[in-house]
Amino acid sequence: MIDRDGMRAIGRAGACWAGICLLAATLWAAESSSRPAPPRPPGRLLGELLDQPVDSLDRFDKKIPRLQPEDAAVAAEGIRKLSGRWVALYTDLPAGKEIDELPALFDAAVPHYCRYFGIDEASLGPWRATACVMKDRERFARANLLPPEVPAFQFGYARNYDLWLDDQPSDYYRRHLLLHEGVHCFMNTQLGACGPPWFMEGTAELLSTHHWDGRTLMLGIVPRHKEDVPMWGRIKIIRDELAAKRGKRVDAVLDLKPTAYLENDAYAWSWALAVLLDHHPRYQARFRQMQKHVLDKQFNEKFRQAFADDWAELAEHWQIFVMTLEYGHDVARDSAVFGPGKPPAPGATFDVAADRGWQSSGWAVEAGRSYTLRASGRYQVAAEPKPWPCEPGGVTIRYYRGRPLGELLMGIRPDAPAAGLSALLRPPIEVGLGRTFTPERSGTLYFKINESPSEWADNAGSLQVEIRPAGGPTP
C-alpha cells in the first residue's frame, strides 16, 4: 500500500483519472483471449495432467494411496518430521523459527477452513494431511516421500491428503504455498472436489493470503502492504496485465482453462474474482453457496444462473474493483449500490458518508439541464497520528490521484449503462464546496470523497450535499 505521502507524490507526478479512463476504455473494449498460450515446459510436468479433463484433477480419488513414510528411510535422508494436530510435515530444511512453526500455522488454518466450508471440526475425526516442504526433491524421492507418479510441478502440488512444495526465498510465500495446497487437500477430502479451475485456485488463493504473527492467523485478507507479502505479487500482476491491455472480464476468468495456470497471471485473476465475490456484501452468500456444487460438471452454468439477475452489475463492480485495486483494498466499503434515481426536489439534500466509496444520491439529472450543488460539513479523513478534520474542499497538505485528500467528488451513472467502461471509472467531477454543472447525459448522481479504497476504515462522519436548479432561489 502506498502511504498518504506517497499518494501526494503520485498526484504531483501526474497520475490522473484521465489516464485510467484511457486504459480502461481499451481494456473493456476487447477481451484478452488473443494472447498466445504460454509454451509448455518439457518433460512430464503438471501441464500434461492439465490437458486431461478437469474432473480427473480436482476430485478426491480413493484409489490413490496415501504417503506411508518410513522413519528409517526419512531419517537416512536427513529429513525431519514436524508434527501438528492436523499435519505431519516433512522437511529437509534446517531447524529455525520460520520452519519449525509451519505445523502450528497449518493447525491454525484448519479451523478457518471448517468455518468457511461449513464443516463441523469435530467431524474431521482422524483427518490429517501429510506435507513435504522440500529443498532437495531427490532426498524425498529416495525416502519414498515423492512418488514417481507425482508430476514435476513448478511450485506446489496437492493430491488427496498429501501435498508437496518447494522451499521459497520468502518466509511469507513458503507459508502461502503450504496454505494454498492445504486448501486443495481440505476441499478434495471434505467436499469431494475443488470445482472448476477458477474456483479451485481462486478459493485456494483467497484462503492462503494471510497474516501470521506466530500465534494468530488471519486468512482471506487483502494485504495492507506489499512488504508484508514478499513474492506474492497478485496485485502487481493485475496492474501489469491491465497496463499490457490483457484485462479479463468475469466471463474470461470463469473460462480459464487448466493450462492457463502454468502462468501466475491466472492465479492473480482468480484471486481477484474470489476476493470481490467473497468480500462484497451483496455477493458473498451466493458465492459461498457455490461450494455445494463442486462435484457438478455444470458448476459454471450454476454460477451464472445464481448471478443472472444482476450479472451486469457484477460486471461493473468487477471493472471498478480491478481498475482501482490497491493493497489493503476495502471491498465492502467500496461497494456501490446501483439503482435508478428520481428527479430531485429543489433544495433536496443527501448525506455522503466519509468512510465509503461511490454512494447513490437517488437524484436523477437530465442532460442539458443545469444544476447547482452546495456542500457543507466536517468529517474525519484519517485517525493517525491524531484525527484529521476535513471539509468538502479537501485538505491540500496531502493528495490522492492528484486531488486534495477528502475533496467531494461526483459521478453520473446512466440508469441503463451501455456495455463497456463504467461511468464511475471516468474522471470524477470535482464538487468541493459547490459547483454548477450541466450534464451531457442523463443519469443518477453518485458521490464520494477523494480517498484511497484502502483507507476508508479510519474515516468518520459525513457531509451534506444540497441540489437546486441552476439559477433557482437559494436559502
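(ticket continues) Second input and output from the same batch:
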Amino acid sequence: MNRQRVSSHSPWESVVGYSRAIRAGGHVFVAGTTAVDASGKLVCVGDAYGQTRRILQIIEQALHAAGATMEEVVRTRIYVVNIARDAEAVGRAHGDVFRDIRPASSLVEVSQLMEPEMLVEIEVHAVATA
C-alpha cells in the first residue's frame, strides 16, 4: 500500500516519531491537533470555541495536503479538559464545519493536554475519493 506523510514541520514530529497526517490508500488520518499558530504558539487562550475553529483550519490544511477534503471526513475524535464547561462551545464550532457532513464523532474529557492552556485536541479520519 502506498503511504504518504504530511508534515507540519513541528520539531516534535522527529522527536516523538509522528506525522501531522498519513494517507494510506484512500484513508487519511490526521493526528491529534491543537490550536497553534505557524510558530507553534497556542492561540485563542481561554476560548474553547476559538481553539476548535483553529484546530479545524489546521486539519483542513493537512487533509488538503493529503489530497482529501473536510467533506470526506468520516470520523472525528474530540478531547476536552472540561466537558461540562466547554462541550457546548466545542460542539457549536464542530457543527459550523460538519453540520451537513455529519461524521461519526466522540467527545471525551481527558485530565490534561500537552499545555495547561490547551482546552481541545481533535483527530480525524477521512476516506478520500480521489
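Agent notes: The longest helix spans residues 48-65. The mean pLDDT is 95. Closing as not reproducible unless the customer responds.
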